[in-house]
Amino acid sequence: MASGTKKPPSIDVIGEVLDKSLSRLDLSRRLDEYGVWPIWRDVVGEAIARNAQPEKIRNGTLFVKVSSPVWMQELQFMKEMIAEKLNHRLPGDVVKNIFFMVGRVEPTTDASAEKRSEPADVPAVPINEEFLRSIEDPEIRAAFQKLVKSFARRRAKA
Q1: Of 23, 28, 53, 29, which Cα lies nearest the Cα of 39?
Q2: What residue ranges do the domains of the chain occupy?
Q3: Alpha-carbon gap, residue 158 to 154, rounded angstroms
Q4: Residue 128 and residue 133: Cα distance in Å, rounded?
Q5: Which of 92, 74, 72, 96 has its CA nearest to residue 83?
Q6: Stretch 116-125: mean pLDDT, rounded?
Q7: Each residue of 34-54: pLDDT tens digit?
Q8: Strand 52-58 to 61-66 pairing
Q9: Residue 50, H or E segment
Q10: What's the predicted TM-score (pTM) here?
Q11: Of the candidates 130, 125, 131, 132, which has an alpha carbon nearest to the alpha carbon of residue 151?
Q12: Within 13 Å, how many C-alpha atoms sit on residue 15's CB side?
């Protein structure tokens, strides 16, 4: 090469620059965060998944759309347990907080899914046993039962 021409950068230098750039983008963390979607239904169960769906995740906060204010309130009490169960299946503490918002929840694509069921918001209505059986996780099912009973007691006192 002529003395005035620059040498092309070596492959090692290009690889090093790419590595640094990719690590600054923190793509592995972003991939971990998006691992929530494939496991959501499994973790929360069919009934909750029909009424609550992850919308986005930013900096450890999972934004979840719910079908009604009643679902938002009930799931608010279970958010720590849901985050724990998600993190148990994900690499590390990916979900640090869950923020629920009322919005349009897309119909489930599971052909076996029944039509959407709303939680009981009137204390006189007993807990629907079929609905409870559809919540696969025993801890979430028990928490939901406890929550509905507590809600009914508070409503009866009011």
Answers
A1: 53
A2: 46-108+117-157
A3: 6
A4: 9
A5: 96
A6: 42
A7: 789 999 999 999 999 999 999
A8: antiparallel
A9: helix 46-51
A10: 0.59
A11: 125
A12: 3
